[in-house]
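re: the backbone from monday

yeah here it is again, tokenized this time
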């Protein structure tokens, strides 16, 4: 059965993180869609690049096997202010569905209460922001229970590979095609 991923996009999202994660998940055979919170299908990213999204955020997101919250300096506060989205994160957690957040996305997971009692990582200095975790781990990407977290802008590859592993997809073939080991990836 094909796995499904819902990757969130809101004004201020980090374009390279979002597009690399989406690309890698699609290469792994995961049916991956990007979701926006506005009518205009082009969402303004952190670097002022407008990126076309696939769909408008809706209840359909709950059909995904994983919900992904990428980073971006200003987008975390916008995600947190969106009550429907925060309730969706809580629903994913209550239903033990996979939740993934990287960089400032980890602060969104913290605000939704989904990191409580779990091992997690985050961007430099976020140890003080992710106060409900059982252990803040200084690793590039961490998977614990139903949550995958990653540090920041330089980590979309290990983050996406960790999501694949959490979805029971072996990323070895994709790593090989990307020459990931030869480039020094872990």
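seq for it, each position gets an aa:
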């Amino acid at each position: 059965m094909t796995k499904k991923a819902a990757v969130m996009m809101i004004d201020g999202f980090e374009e390279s993180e979002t597009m690399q994660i989406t690309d890698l998940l699609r290469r792994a055979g995961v049916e991956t869609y990007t979701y926006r919170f506005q009518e205009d299908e082009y969402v303004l990213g952190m670097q002022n690049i407008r990126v076309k999204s696939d769909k408008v955020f809706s209840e359909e997101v709950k059909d995904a096997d994983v919900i992904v919250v990428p980073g971006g300096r200003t987008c975390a506060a916008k995600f947190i202010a969106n009550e429907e989205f925060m309730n969706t994160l809580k629903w994913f957690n209550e239903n033990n569905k996979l939740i993934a957040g990287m960089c400032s996305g980890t602060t969104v997971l913290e605000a939704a209460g989904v990191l409580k009692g779990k091992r997690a990582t985050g961007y430099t200095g976020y140890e003080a922001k992710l106060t409900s975790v059982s252990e803040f781990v200084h690793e590039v990407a961490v998977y614990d229970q139903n949550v995958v977290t990653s540090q920041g802008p330089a980590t979309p590859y290990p983050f996406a590979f960790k999501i694949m592993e959490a979805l029971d997809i072996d990323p070895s073939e994709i790593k090989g095609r990307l020459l990931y080991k030869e480039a020094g990836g872990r």
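The domain at 4-177 is CATH 3.40.50.880 (Rossmann fold). The chain has six helices and eleven strands.
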